[in-house]
Amino acid sequence: MDLELSAVQRGARDTARRFAREKLEAIGVECDRSHEFPAVAIKELGKLGFLGTFLPEKFGGAGLDQVAYALVVEELAVACASTAVIVSAHCSLASWPILGLGSDAMKARFLPKMAAGEWLGCFALTEPQAGSDAAGQKTRAVRDGDSYVINGTKNFITNGPQAGAAIVFAMTAPEQGHHGISAFAVETQSPGWSVVRVEDKMGIHGAHSAQLSFSDMRVPRENLIGAEGEGFKVAMKTLDGGRIGIAAQAVGIARASLEASLKYSQERQTFGHPLARHQAIQFKLADMAVNVDAARWLTLNAAALKDAGRPCTRESAMAKLFAAETAMKAATEAVQIHGGYGYTREFKVERYFRDAKITEIYEGTSEIQRLVISGQVLGH
Ligand code: CAA
Question: Do 99 and 203 share a domain, yes or no?
Fold first, then answer.
C-alpha cells in the first residue's frame, strides 16, 4: 500500500472533519438523548456526496475510493457513531452489492437514488434464529412467473425504518443449505414490506435497528443479485467491505475517547498536578494512541486492497476485530480517566462506552472475526 494519502483522499477527510466539528458534534449529543434519527445530518451528507462516496459519478456518486470512504466514516464517528453506522450500512451493505454484483439495469434503477439519499439502504440478512450462523435462513422466496414471493422476518436491521432500498436474503432452495440462499434488491414500498418494531438499545440511539416482516412481498425476477443460490456469497463478499466501514466507525469512537481523555487529563488537577502529569494516566494515553493508529492502518490497508480489486476477507476481519476491541478499550479507559464524571451524562465518554460495544457485535462478532481470520491463516 502507498502510505501517503492522495490530495483527493485528504480533501474528503478534511471536508468530513469540518462537517463533523461544525454540525455533527451537536447532533451526536442530541440524537443520543432523543433516540431520533439524525435526518438533518443525513440530508447534508447527501449534499456533500458522502452517501455515494465510492459510487461512480455516472450514478451521482462522488467517484472516490474505499480509502477515502474509510477516512470519511472515521471522521463522522468521532462526532456521532450513529450517523457513521447509518452511512456505513447504506454505502457498504446496501449500495455496494448493487454496484459490485448487480445488473446494469439494477444499477441504473437504484444507485442514483441511493447516492442522492432519496433512498437510504439497508441489508436484511440477520433473522431471529440466524445471526452469527447466517446460513440458517428461514425467510423463503418462491418463484411465481416473473417474480418471487418473499415471506419471513429479519432482525436488528440498521436503517430498516428509513430504508427506501434493501438487500434481502431468502431461501429459494432450503434443501441446499447455504447454496439455496438468494439475494434480492428490494424497493421497500413493495406491498408486504413492514417494520414490526424498533429495538431499544444500549447505544447508537440515532441509528434505528428494526425487526422487519415480509408478507407475500412480490419482487421482480430481475431484482435477483447474481444467480439463484449465490446469495450467501453475495452476503459474505458484501460483509468483507462492510467490516471496513465498521472498523472505520470503531477507529472514530476510539479517537474520540482519546481526544476527550487528552483534554480532560490536562485540565483536571489531582494531588497538585494535572492528571496528565501522572505516569499511570500517561501510560493509558500512550496505549490508546498506539492502538488508534494501528487500528486505522489495518482499516486503510483493507480498504486499499479492496480498491485494488484484491481479496480482503482476512484483512477486513482483522481491521474490524482490532478496531472494535480498540474502541471498547479506549472508551473504557476514557471513562476511567474521567473518574466519577465519566460515569455521568455530563461528559461524552459514557456515550462512547455505550456506542463502542456494538462494534464488537454487528457485522460479525469478534468471535466470528477470529473464526474468519483463523480459517484464512490456516488455509481452510
Ligand atoms: N467471500 C466469498 N465467499 C465466501 C466468503 C467470502 N468472504 N466467506 C465464505 N464464502 C463462501 C465459501 O467459500 C463457501 O463456498 P462453497 O460452499 O461454495 O465452497 C461458502 O461461502 C460457505 O462458507 P463457510 O463454510 O465458511 O460458511 P459458514 O456457514 O461456516 O459461515 C461465517 C461462515 C464466517 C461464520 C459466516 O456465517 C459469517 O460471516 N457469519 C456472521 C454473519 C454476520 O456478519 N452478520 C452480520 C449481519 S449484518 C449487520 O450486522 C448489519 C447491520 O445492520 C449493521
Answer: no
pTM: 0.98
Rounded Cα distance between 279 and 263, Å, is 16
Domain, as residue range, for 144 = 122-229
Radius of gyration (C-alpha) of the chain in whole angstroms: 21
Distance 170 CA to ligand 1 centre (A): 15
The enclosing domain of 269 has a CATH number of 1.20.140.10
Pick out the chain residues at pLDDT < 70. Answer: 1-2
62 neighbors 16 (Cβ within 8 angstroms): no
pLDDT digits (tens, 9 = 90+) for 195-250: 999 999 999 999 999 999 999 999 999 999 999 999 999 999 999 999 999 999 99
Which residues are known catalytic residues? 363
Looking at the structure, tell me whether residues 351 and 287 fall in a common domain: yes
Task: Residue count of the chain, please give it.
Answer: 380
Which of the listed residues 177, 208, 229 is the one where a domain comes to its end?
Answer: 229
Q: How, if at all, do strands 147-158 and 140-144 pair?
A: antiparallel
How many domains would you assign to the chain?
Answer: 3
Which residue, by CA, sits nearest to atom 48 of ligand 1?
363
